[in-house]
Amino acid sequence: MEKRKLIMQFLDAANKAYSISLDNPREDLTQEEIYQAMTNLAGLDVFVSRNGLLTAPNKANIVTTSTTEIEF
């Protein structure tokens, strides 16, 4: 079984990294769509790290993991 996760890393008010992850992102997401979504999220001023509000997108990764069950 394969699982995908979008990990979005932002910079906060202290210029420190803060990550938010989402399970099962669309397969056809583009770099521009991810960047625009992250910019919009940072602009909402609703996510706060211990150092303050998120201020800007930093980077994003799509992580795919594969699990193989072993039955006994």
Q: Rough shape? A: elongated
Mean pLDDT: 96
Q: Indicate the radius of gyration in whole angstroms.
A: 15 Å
CATH architecture: Roll
* % residues in beta strands: over 45%
Question: Which range best describes the helical content: under 10%, 10-25%, 25-40%, 40-55%, 55-70% or over 70%?
Answer: 10-25%
**N-to-C SSE series?**
EEHEE
Number of strands: 4
Instruction: Measure the end-to-end span.
Output: 18 Å
Total domain modules: 1
Largest beta sheet: strand ordering? 2-1-4-3
Using the coordinates above, name the CATH class: Alpha Beta
Total DSSP helices: 1
CATH structural fold name: Ubiquitin-like (UB roll)
Which regions contain 5 or more consecutive residues with pLDDT less than 50?
none
* Biggest sheet details: 4 strands, antiparallel
Structural class based on helices, strands and sheet pairing: alpha+beta
Structure explained in plain terms:
This protein is an alpha+beta fold and 72 residues long. It has one domain (2-66): Ubiquitin-like (UB roll) (Roll), CATH 3.10.20. The protein has one helix and four strands; from the N terminus they run ββαββ. It has one helix spanning 31-43, and strands at 2-12, 17-23, 48-49, 52-66. Strands 2-1-4-3 form a four-stranded antiparallel sheet, with helices on one face. A hairpin with a 2-residue loop joins strand 3 (48-49) and strand 4.
